[in-house]
Every structure is written in structure tokens, then in C-alpha cells.
Amino acid sequence: MELSISSTLPWLIAVLAIIGGITFFKSAYYPVSQQPDFKESESGRGTRAARDLVKPEPQLKPKLEADLHAKRQHDTDPKLQPKHKIFLSHSGAQKDFVEQLCEDLERFHHFPFFDKREDSLPKGERFPELIFQAAKQCRVAVVVVSEEFLTRTKWPMLELDAFVKAKKERNGYPRILPLFFKLSRAQCRESARRELWLEVWRGWARHDSKIVVEDWVNALNIFGPINGLEYKLEGEVSYRKAARSAIIRLVPPELQFDTTSYQGSDRFCKLIVDKLHEVEASTEYGVRVVGVYGVGGLGKTSVCKALYNSQYAEYDGRVCLVELGGLSPEELQKQVLRELTQLNPELEKDLRGDKVVRLLKERVHKHKVFLAIDNVWDSSVSRDAALTFLQAGFHCDSMVLVTARTRDILVRLDIDENHCIEMPELDKEEATKLFLHHALPYCSQVEGSQREVVEQCVERC
Fold first, then answer.
1. In the chain, what are the domain boundaries?
2. Which of 105, 144, 427, 440 could staple 110 via S-S, CB 3.0–4.6 A?
3. Residue 361 CA to chain centroid, in angstroms?
4. What is the pLDDT of residues 363-403, one digit of tens each?
5. Topology (CATH level 3) of domain 265-422
């Protein structure tokens, strides 16, 4: 008993020191009047589940308060859709091509402003205002440049003019991506063609005061220095896929993980990606497989989420993080099938049992993918779940990451021991930021004696 107490005492003192340090910081940075209060539950016990933190409302200066009020009005304006980061500008002659491109993007969690979507142009609203508002707020303007775009109706050129003017006002946004659809960049510069376009534009301008031909000429000139996609002889399907890939690279997806509070994630991601590129393809699985191991709480899942974000564009949206131990094996298989192959939701409803695995093997080899299999346990059920994915028969350019608590678990999955790396630790600066994020979320740095206490806490942790 005496031996047990003597061996435990130093750890108890360390824990009390950390708690004391956190309490000291909070009391130093929060005056009594601003320290968080707890509301008691109706029973009066104030249990953790029933208590709500009551944070003091900061006193805003009148101008700042007015600015925030204006921002809230802008954010809640039903006419503005924040999800419409992409604007698909086109002529009606290319409507079918653009509608298919829109559907492709929607399968990858991008929801463009497209005039055939009711959430873009709701019924009963004045569509010119909605179009110009969307043109000013989007981050990427996809312009399907064709002969019809320039001469069929005035609307496509009005949109292009709005993009160019917004780009000057918004410090480079929207980014304009020209898709030269059966009209090359060189043809856009031909003097004879331009004269014909100018003649059409001048005719429209005589009946519409909003059209300033000189502005349209300047707008057209933006295609000169901008790198767009030329339509060659590959056909519309291949051209559409190339366009989709280019758009995904320009616009982050809506469903990425929030990794803003993660420390060291960029460094860890680079370490793992470098390892994936360094190793040879697994003789067992035919693709590059890297294992990462470490005890719980080191951040393996956080790194998987950060890798999901960083690899999304590289793999054309075909990335997936599957966390073992939560959903059933069949639900996890459906998740991987859905996210890596863009499976039609209607088809997914009828999938059961072996059909899921069979369809996964039939489809997953067609494109390169990035898959992170997180949290493999030392149990036959967990290993079998991981093996189902590892043996799916991925495209040869795919990459797979597997995480577990020990290297032995990874080796039992036939992952080469030399392809396994231990989860790296945070460096001193990263650990300090992490400590401050949890102990003092409103303080980014400390000085003097307070800094010394933080360093002691970080050292003991």
C-alpha cells in the first residue's frame, strides 16, 4: 500500500498543478463579472448536462454594431444563397451540356447557380435581380463560351460583364473559368468574328440602355490572359469531366471537415502523403498502403480528416474517411461505395448483403481514390471490416491509409512493416497552442510569468 501511494503521488501532484494552472489563467483573464456562470437545472443541482454556459455579451461600438446588423441582413436575405459559390453562365444552346455538368457537380456536393434550379431562381421572384446578385457573390464563374453565348441573346454577355466588374470590386473574385465550347480561344480573337459580334451588340444596345458595348469588349478581352479549357475532339463526356475536375480544384466542397482547431495537421499530412508517394504498391493489395499507429488521443482521426480535406481536389472528390466501430459493416460499405463511386441513391436503397461488396469491387477500380480506414481494433470483426476495403481491388493510382493503436494490428493486415509510421507528437509550439485553445480559448498567447506556467503545464502533459 505504501509503495502504491508513493508511486501515485507524483502523478497526482502533476494533475493538480495543471488544474491549478488552468484555474489561475481563467481567473487572470476573466474578471469576476465576466467569468462564465452556470444556470442550475430545475432540480437545483446544476448537472453538467443541464447547465448552459452564460457568456457575457461584448459591448459593441455603434459603427461596428451597425456593420454587423447590415451583415446579418445580407446573410439572411432569402434571395442570396451562400451555397451558390459557382455560377454556370451559358447560352440556351448549351443547356443540356450545362445541366449535365450541374448534376455532376451536385454529386460532388457542389451546388451551382443554374437557371433551371428552383433554389437558384425561385418562382415569383424577379429573375434579373437574382442573376446579378448571384453573379456578384459567386467565387467561381464558369463561362461556357460559344458562338451562341455571344450572339443568341443579351443575357450571357450581361452576366460576363457583371463578373468582370465584380472581379475588380472584390479583389479578384469571382475567378472566371472559360470553357471554350466548340469556339477556340484563337477564334475569339479573330477580327472578322469580333466585328460580327459588335454589330449584334450595337443592335441590342439601341433598345437597352444597360448595354454598354465598350464594357462588353473589355469583358471579352479577359479571355486572353485566363487559362480556360478548350473543347477538342475528345467528345462532350470527356470535356465535361475535365471541366468538373477544374471546378472542384477551384472551389472547396461544402462537406469538408472543420480542422481549424487542429494543431500540427499540415505537418502531419505532409509526412503521411510523402510516405504514401515514397512506398511501392502493396503486393497484397495492388495499391499504396500506409499504416499509422499510436495510442488513443494522439490525433489519428484528426489527421484523417485533415487528409480528407487536403486530398479532395487531387482525387477529383473521390475521397472517403471510414471510421470503424460506429456503423455496421454493411453501412460502412455503402458509405465507401457512395463516396468513392458516386452511387445513385436510388440504387443504394436496394443493396443488401453480398451485393454491396460485389458492386464495390465492380466500380471502385475505375478511378483513382483516396481512402482512410480509421481505428482498426485488435479483433477479428474489426480486421475483417478493414480487409473488405483493402481487398476491394482499387485503381492502381489509389492510396489507402490505415490507422490503429499498435503496429502489430497493421502488420496482421499484411501491411508492410516498413510502410508503417508512428503517429508523430506535437512540437512545443503546437502543444502550447493546443493547451491555450482548451484552457483559454480567447487568448492566443501569454507573456512573462504566465508563459512560464503554460510551459510547465505543457511539459507535464
1. 75-250, 265-422, 429-460
2. 105
3. 27
4. 888 889 999 999 999 999 999 999 999 999 999 999 999 99
5. Rossmann fold (3.40.50)
CA-based nearest residue to 176, from 139, 217, 214: 139
Instruction: Quote the CA–CA distance of 85 and 82 in Å, as a whole number.
Output: 7
CATH topology of domain 75-250: Rossmann fold (3.40.50)
**Three-class SS state of 293:** strand
CA 453 to chain centroid: 37
Two domains, one topology: 75-250 and 265-422 = yes
Q: Residue 378: helix, strand or coil by DSSP?
A: coil
- pLDDT tens digits, one per residue of 316-349: 888 999 999 888 888 999 889 888 887 776 777 7
Measured CA to CA, the distance from residue 155 to residue 128 in angstroms comes to 9
Return the number of other C-beta atoms located less than 10 Å from residue 186's C-beta. 9
Residue 143: closest CA among 151, 153, 135: 135
Phi (first) and psi of residue 2, to 5 degrees: -60, -40
pLDDT tens digit string along 110-152? 889 998 887 777 766 677 888 888 888 888 999 999 999 999 9
- Give pTM, 2 decimals: 0.58
